[in-house]
Amino acid sequence: MKLNNDLDRYLEQALEQNRPVKIGWGRAGDERPKDGEFGVMTHLPEGARVLCLGTLGDCVGAANRGGTLTLRGSAGSMLGAFHQSGKTVVEKDVGNKAGFAMAGGEISIQGSTGDEAGASMSEGMILVRGHSGDRLGAGMSGGSILVMGSVGSEPGIGMNGGRIIISGSCPPPPDGVEMRSIKKSEISEFSKMLEPMGLSLNNDALVLEPGANLTTGDEVAEYFISEGFENISLYPNEGSLSNNAPLDHYTLLVQEEADSGGSLLKIPWIISCETAIGSEKWKGVDSPAIVRTEARDGDLLLVGKNEFYGAVEHIENCSGIVFDITDFPGLNDAEIEAMVISLRSRLRTNSIILLRGRIDRIERLFRLVMDLELDGAVVNCATRSGSRLASVLPKIGLSSKAMGIGETGKFVMIEVLHQPDAKDLIIAVASGCTALVSPCPESDLDSKIGELATGIRSWMREIGVDRIERIGRRNLRANNYDTASISGLRLVGYDRPLKMWLDLR
User: Fold this and answer.
1) The pTM is what?
2) What is the mean pLDDT of the chain?
3) Distance (Å, whole) CA 128 – CA 81
4) Is there a contact between 268 and 436 (Cβ–Cβ < 8 Å)?
5) Suppose 324 and one of 31, 64, 220, 304 were both cysteines; which one would form an S-S bond, judging by CB atoms 3.0 to 4.6 Å apart?
6) What architecture is domain 225-504?
């Protein structure tokens, strides 16, 4: 965090004075190498020049936007991930996924790389002077990878574009990948890059390309919700409220013990959309939203695979981020933490950070929230087989209890695909969630918010609570045996949950 904050400040001055920033040396020029920093030196602006000495961790130099980064040392996984332009040079070895999802620029690695270098890249150039691990260029769609040494198993697996040039030994490529000899024009093309390093290609080099019978890839899975909260009823407390009783259905999304920042929800509903800025539908509406691009002061910025590179342009305006781990399959905990740190260091003080994940992997989602000391989670309730929202409630409740989410006051929001009514929002809060997330409605937004607020107040009076957070599972009932059996809620007409749920408790 400190390295990123200091670097951003130094880069401003260095760009004005047209000089590089040196990291890892004292004022007298004595060496003070960095050791283990991760998620650093990301989103370098165009023209920036950074020279760093040390052995660094994961996600170093990610999302380069046109700068030049030279690392006199080694780095962990995801070096130069989401590289857009500029140049990154590492003088020693790097870990797995170097150049992951890069879309331009050049990465030069003087040592060797781990597995999956260049995975999912679409443009740009990766040069590896040493050896490369398994699955080199996995799923790449464009760009070039040049390895002067040998490569591991399954090079180019899943590639549908681009090319891999290998000067050392290469195993037989997997299905869908063709191997051929290098052309003279290609030797000439790469000689301009190799000659200054004292390297050259010869006629023995091999080139891997997508096969002629290129498949279009796996079918994209459709996730949906087959049943909402229609089989759940609201049950009142012993006492009701008068029509004139003051009601509080506001929720403040703010870091624990913080006295500023965050967002204010007037009702427990957050809309997910591209952006609220410039939209006629959002004119005059001050409710917070989860947006993918331009953010207003109270909005949360959703950051997935397509948004990570450009997030730095909008991150200073928002009140926090929602980092979508569903968009990064295969990343381990350390890599996710490194990406979050790269963004966290640029957020305003007291900004909140939530993780977004799917209900069928909720244990890992909640564990990451706790391990990374984040502020909460957004649980996407859609599944490939079609989920029933009644069955979501015990999954969230039991996982929250197991991971200690509820005890620490962290936020948990459930995300659905339909437009909610007031009853849906009350059920979400009663089940222990902070709010419900859904897409933007087609109808007039201001009227919809007013309609929901009126409905929430009506339910609060009927149930007999003056503060919305006082609603709990005791106010929920299952309308039929099937719903009671999958939700753990009390069946209408019964005083206790079904026996199977009592045994679990």
Assistant:
1) 0.94
2) 93
3) 15
4) yes
5) 304
6) Alpha-Beta Barrel (3.20)
